[in-house]
Amino acid sequence: MALLSEEEQHFFRRIFETEMVDEVKVIYFTQKPSPIIKPEEKCQFCEDIQAMWEEITGLSDKLSLEVYYLDQDNDKFFEHWVDKIPASILLGKGQSRLRYFGVFSMREFPIVIEAIIALSKGEAALLDETKEELKSVENYTDVHVYVTPP
């Protein structure tokens, strides 16, 4: 069952076709579905998020999806510094990347689409003076943004 309506799929296909420059890879970290997982250890939204990524990445040849599973692909979790699920990493042009932990709601969905497009262009939608200021950062910096529902 499609998560996006045909109209929404058409809309996003057109946006990706006209706005994306280079490829963007989505790396999704999840848990394999299993009937023997204790309820308190089951990732409540992992399957839904994976279905969403499968649908979104299926809308453009410039999008691809890799899926890795907890307790099966530990080397990939370590390589990408993932210590919780669900986790989504979007890799764009050059060194551009975005790491997103947790579930993004419908309010955050447009931001994810904008991030995909920005990553494909290799540029952030920041003011020029912000970009200049960021050039002075010498060490690796991990910025955390927490989003909570209203």
Keywords:
150 residues, alpha+beta, Glutaredoxin, four-stranded mixed β-sheet, 4 strands
How does this model look, in words?
The protein is of the alpha+beta class and 150 residues long. Helices cover 35% and strands 16% of the residues. The protein is built from five helices and four strands; from the N terminus they run H-E-H-E-H-E-E-H-H. A four-stranded mixed β-sheet has the order 2-1-3-4. The mean pLDDT is 85. The chain has a single domain, classed as 3-Layer(aba) Sandwich (Glutaredoxin). The longest helix has 14 residues, at 6-19.
Tell me the number of structural domains: 1
Q: What structural category characterises the helix and strand content?
A: alpha+beta
Show unreliable segments.
none
Inertia-based shape: globular
* CATH fold-level label: Glutaredoxin
Roughly how much helix do the residues carry, as a percent range?
25-40%
Write the layout of secondary structure elements.
Layout: H1 6-19, E1 24-30, H2 46-57, E2 63-69, H3 74-79, E3 87-91, E4 97-101, H4 109-121, H5 128-134
Parallel strand pairs: 1-2
Antiparallel strand pairs: 1-3, 3-4
Could you write a compact summary of the structure shown?
With 150 residues, the chain is of the alpha+beta class.
